[in-house]
Specification:
Blueprint: H1 2-12, H2 14-37, H3 44-47, E1 52-56, H4 58-63, H5 65-74, E2 77-80, H6 86-89, H7 99-110, E3 114-121, H8 128-131, H9 137-154, E4 161-166, H10 179-183, H11 187-198, E5 203-208, H12 215-231, E6 237-240, E7 243-245, H13 250-262, E8 266-275, H14 288-306, E9 313-318, H15 327-330, H16 350-359
The structure holds ligand G3I.
Ligand G3I binds next to loops.
């Protein structure tokens, strides 16, 4: 009784009450914070019959805890957005730099995620020394072969598949003039053969954008596949980048998917984003109408992918994780763009839950 009275006496002191009150409020807010941060239990990647991927940026993986957590928990496949490209991995004629690419690989391996390699041969993000390279055809071939085989060998057994050549055709179906087409006849076939020599188990892709509504470009890609088959040049897959927007024509998208499936090769929606403000309207509002239109495109694409024969489903990869990391905002400088499945704070958009319910 004496002890109880002492307790009441202490509690009545204003200072003690204040401290207790503070602890109480802190406890409640911690609880609310923990609830809002709690890791969701059901993941879209787990209801899909194919890998769900994202391209990633090693700086964000280092600096941003939420980015790291989302990338690690929401995706089963990872692509380096920039850090396996020529400019980054091969900065000098005699110098390769795999540090940041390796960071991505280590991140993914720790989480048992598949790693997709992007990209061995492209006309963009080429280091200056390659652009300035001097030599005859043999010298050019040795230079490109050395690049491809060093990179593929470095990641052998870690990278499941490679975008061997990226964006080699123009919209009219002609071969894009690049330093590669200028100096190395038949450079596409040679690149695939060199990649195959370095890792016969890697799944080798031709990757391109904007095939929908560009029948000549799509035909050039189909011709390439047929030509490779006729000549026994190894090719295993087609990457459809799928940088589409809410106005893209559904029939045109479905047609190129069907044409790709008909080749019998693996199909990868390799860089998916659905732009909501393609004309970069400064007054654009990401309202419910835009969100619904975007959701309909996501549904169309995921349902179409789901109907591809299982053996040909390489997966769907988003081009980065949260809206604010999208190349459309950074590279294209379109600040009012929200093309991905996670918002600026990496929260799941409503579309995520609809996909989850529809596809499970
Ligand atoms: O890392 C440098 C940084 O050091 C520098 O301060 C800054 C200044 O501009 O540039 C940074 O590099 C940028 C890099 O992205 C990393 O953010 C480059 O300038 C910028 O050109 C580069 O853009 C990339 C673009 O390819 C280059 O064409 C985008 O991030 C990347 O999303 C984009 O990806 C391509 C695919 O590989 C192929 N398909 C199309 C797709 C979109 O263009």
């Amino acid at each position: 009784m004496k002890g109880f009275c002492k307790c009441i006496f202490i509690l009545r002191k204003p200072f003690t009450m204040k401290i207790l009150y503070t602890f109480f409020v802190l406890g409640i807010s911690q609880f609310i914070f923990a609830q809002s941060q709690s890791v969701p239990k059901v993941f879209l990647k787990d209801v899909l019959t194919f890998p769900l991927g994202a391209s990633v940026n090693p700086r964000l993986l280092d600096e941003n805890v939420t980015y790291r957590e989302r990338t690690g928990s929401e995706f089963s496949s990872v692509t380096a957005e920039n850090h396996m490209k020529m400019m980054n991995v091969h900065p000098g004629a005699d110098r390769f730099d795999f540090v940041l690419g390796d960071e991505i690989v280590a991140f993914a391996k720790n989480r048992k995620q598949r790693i997709h390699g992007h990209t061995l041969v492209w006309h963009n993000q080429v280091p200056q020394w390659m652009k300035d390279f001097q030599g005859d055809q043999v010298a050019w071939e040795n230079m490109l072969k050395n690049h491809i085989q060093t990179v593929v060998a470095h990641y052998k057994g870690k990278v499941a598949g490679w975008d061997v050549v990226n964006e080699a055709f123009l919209d009219d179906g002609s071969l894009r003039p690049t330093i590669w087409s200028d100096h190395i006849p038949d450079y596409l076939a040679k690149s695939f053969l060199w990649a195959y020599e370095a890792d016969p188990n890697a799944i080798l892709f031709y990757n391109d954008y904007g095939q929908d509504g560009k029948p000549k470009k799509m035909q050039a890609i189909l011709n390439l596949v047929q030509d490779f088959k006729n000549r026994n040049i190894p090719i295993n897959g087609l990457g459809l980048q799928m940088h589409v927007n809410i106005g893209s024509k559904n029939e045109a998208i479905l047609e190129v998917i069907n044409q790709s499936v008909a080749t019998g090769l693996s199909v990868h929606f390799s860089e998916l984003d659905v732009a909501v403000n393609p004309k970069n309207n400064p007054d654009f509002v990401y309202d419910d109408v835009a969100k619904d239109e975007q959701l309909n495109k996501f549904l169309l694409l995921f349902n179409a992918f789901k109907s591809i024969p299982k053996g040909q489903q390489y997966g769907i990869t988003f081009w980065n994780v949260g809206d604010k990391d999208s190349w459309l905002r950074g590279y294209f400088k379109r600040p009012k763009e929200n093309p991905l499945l996670f918002d600026d704070a990496y929260a799941r958009k409503a579309a995520y839950n609809v996909l989850l319910q529809t596809l499970k």
